[in-house]
Design goal:
By secondary structure, the protein is mostly beta strands. It has 7 domains: 45 residues, no CATH class; 189 residues, Jelly Rolls; 162 residues, Jelly Rolls (Sandwich), CATH 2.60.120.260; 152 residues, Jelly Rolls (Sandwich), CATH 2.60.120; 82 residues, Sandwich (Immunoglobulin-like); 78 residues, Immunoglobulin-like, CATH 2.60.40; 263 residues, 7 Propeller (Methylamine Dehydrogenase, Chain H). Helix content is 2%, strand content 44%. It has 2 helices and 87 strands. The strands form 19 sheets. Strands 2, 3, 33, 36, 39, 40, 43 and 44 form an 8-stranded mixed β-sheet that branches. Strands 5, 7, 8, 11, 14, 17 and 19 form a 7-stranded antiparallel β-sheet that branches. Strand 37 and strand 38 form a beta hairpin.
Length: 1028
Amino acid sequence: MGINMIIREHLSIFRGSLVSLSMKAQKFIRFGITLAIAMIFALMCVSVGSNPTHPMVLAQDVRADDLSPSVVIFNESFDSVTAPNLPAGWTTTSSGASLPFATVNTIPDSSPNAVFTNDPFQGGDASLTTPSIALGNIRHKLIFRQRYQLDYEFDGGVLEISIGAGAFTDIITAGGSFVSGGYDTPLVSGSLNGRQAWTGDSVTYVTTEVNLPANTSNQSIRLRWRFGSDAMEGGNGWRIDNVQITNAISGLNTSSITIPASGPASTYPSEITVAGQTGLISGVQVNLTNFTHTAPDDVDLVLEGPNGNKVVLMSDVGGTNAVTNLNLVFDDTAAASLPDSTAITSGTYKPTDFETGDIYPAPAPAGPPIGRMLAAFSGALPNGAWRLYLVDDNGSNAGSISGGWSISVQSSPDAIGLQTTGTADPYPSQKLISGLLGTVTKAVVTLSNFSHTSPDDVDVVLVAPNGRQVVLISDAGGANEAGNLNLTFDDAAVNSLSDSGQLVSGTFKPTNFEPGDVFPAPAPQSAPTGPTLGAFYGSAPNGTWKLFAVDDAGNNVGSIAGGWNLALTTSTTACDFALSPTAQSFPAAGGSGSFAISMPAACSWTAVSSSSFLTVTSAASGNGDAGVQFTVSPNFGGPRSGSIEVSNGVVMRTFQVQQTSGCPTSIGQTTLNFGPAGGSGNVAVIAGGACSYLASSSAAWVQVTSPTQSGNGTVTFNVLPNPSSSGRSTTVSISGQTLTVNQAGAAGRRFDFDGDGKADLSVFRPSSGVWWVLNSGTAASYSAVAFGISTDKLTPADYDGDRKTDFSVYRGGIWYVFQSQTNTVRIENWGVTTDIPMPGDVDGDGRADLTVYRPAEGNWYVNRSATSTYQTVNFGLATDKPLSGDFDGDGRMDFAVYRPGANSASVSFWAVLKSGDGSALVQQFGNGGDIAIPADFDGDGRDNIAVFRPSTGTWYTSTDPATNYGAIQFGAAGDVAAAADYDGDGKADVAVFRQGVWYIRNSSNGAVGTDFWGSSGDFVVPAAFVGQ
């Protein structure tokens, strides 16, 4: 069901909305009435639904449940006449300021015409009456389309019916029932004062479908649409179009049923298939045509629905009084049952079973009937096979139903089924309420056409949009079958429902005889808010209201076939509230605060921050008096204000927050390291939108490239190459924050013997003690230097700071260095025979320091060239492999070890003691059998963790360190890994030496080069410090 709420707040005596009060006052003054404004405010309230004290309109647009097959008995589209004429037989009357109904060609539902009457600003009355319409001996329904814009609650329209030559009465009073598009709300003045009516604004054409009273069968009827207005405001008017009456037959079987003297009928069962209906069953009527029998008391007749449930239509009625060609209609709404022993006549009757326990042979379903009323079928799906089983249970008499039978199954999208133990269908049934002003002060709920074969099984709870819940009915009515009851629940009712007695239609207090019933999810799992509908007092009315129904015992069925209606009375003043304090100021640093809400206990509130820097930290909703806590974020910009909005669903009050300006700024890093080649750098800045900043460098070799910025941003700069062999440091200032920039000294490339910035192909031939160097700086030039013996350990490095690698060996604790700057030999005792030499620039003066690692102690011993002092550092284990490298990019060698795994399936670990900040890095990288080869493969001035896996010839190189890695297959088992910067681009190249042949993959262009230099058995100089 689509629901459009067209709502105008009104006054209980002096109607009209608060916003239009001045206009109303002027109008009343023209009528000579003095308004008491204070009284108007005191009496103002609103509601929605049916029969509230001060109701609001629900304009409904519901699609009709077209029954199939159906026969149109009467149809009028008003399109065969010329406006303003009415079709033949239609009549109209009017009085006062109302105009007679007439056809118009403006806004018809179907072109060209609709019938229309106006809604005047004065009192009036108008009616539209059909010609006499003859109905047959079956149930009928009326369907028509209407569109209305009428002064809400004061002007409206109703539908009346005259049966036979009787007086006109309201369609509901006469016994009809709306399937869809029923009345909105009672009128409070005018000629129709007090009557339920269509009123307000339907917005568009809506379908109204109404089941005509059962007693209209075989009668002639007239229908009358009647409009009434009061002496005040008016609206556009009322349009009616496409009026249709159908016979409401869902299925028909005209085959004769022969009733033998004893036993099942000749057609057993007789079947009708119903198809094409939507929704759930809301009513069933069965018609027998031409029933004949010499002793009706012998006849037992049961109806089976598509779900297998059955209801006895008649059993042991009419005594032995023979009947001929009777037309019998079975309908729960009939006035009487069939007689027991007197003669029966054609007519409409309730299902009648005088002697229960009759036997119906198979294929009739076994077991007792599901209920005594046709309402027992309600709530189930309508489509499928309906079967009629007829048995003559006594001999010597016979009969027939020569005209067959028909069935009318009414279905509704609003019906709620309780066909099995457990939850209803649907679960929940929902109504969306919108547009109401104020908070709830009263709620009235109506369950329409409630039926159940054991009402004690039924539990129903209503849940408001804010989660409050009230049980309407639980364990009432005992095991007494109830059918088609209209149960209204109102706290003002005198009585509750009966515990074990028969339930009847009426108005009752919510009734819960056995608290603690379980309503499965998605129903709330908490206890009911209260025992009365007053628990909804103070709730916001708008949102989705949910009705959860449960059958908590088996073997019984039921339904709420007519759905449910919710009438809400609301008030704009009942839940007024105050905030204390109403404002608070905060410094730029932010902080926390609170304020109090003063509100009646039953009223609900919500608190929502409307500013991103304000966060509500306490409960954001509640009832009655409460405290709200919140936090204020630091301010990175100019002065600002924000608010927390507190609402009771009617009024919104604001708690104001003021915060002073503040521009504290933070940066993503405080230290950056660069290699000798320099490069570009950046650092993220976090700042308020109103904060501007411009970075400045303390040294010319760091050049800021980013402009003045505001808010979050990035400072960019360039670091120039370092021409000195010594490292250097400076700072960059950013709005009070300091970034330290370190740059390593311009030490020569490793294994660069000629100083051209490229590593040279070089080998040491132990058999002769000669170093063979292919100089990259001069084409076809090489050097051969005899320096060392076969048992020496190679220690090439730049010991004199001329940016050229010096020939050097380590022999039993003595260092022999051929210094290229002066062509002199330096001999120095530093270490013992078992030490592992690992030269490197530890002090950052651009010269390699004599350094050894003593495995037995895990100590590093350094002879610092810058200060001629000694240093001892404990870092490593006896089985570790010492490494030489600058892993943090500060231009100084870091102490590092490689701890290989026990085998190829075991992981290896790296440990680095950074010289920049003294922190230790432990990183898993590589497996047992891998060769550790630290080098700067990415050119960022820092050596990368890297390994060469001889078993597969694969290089694994990491960046930053080992959070990601690359893999390159280059080499084979038996190759000597010899990574160095052979092309001078600042990046180490992957290279291997294989029996006198060098294979080099240049990082600058990816090209692979091959050079013949050396022979098998030579020591590869660039592999002097790998962790093998």
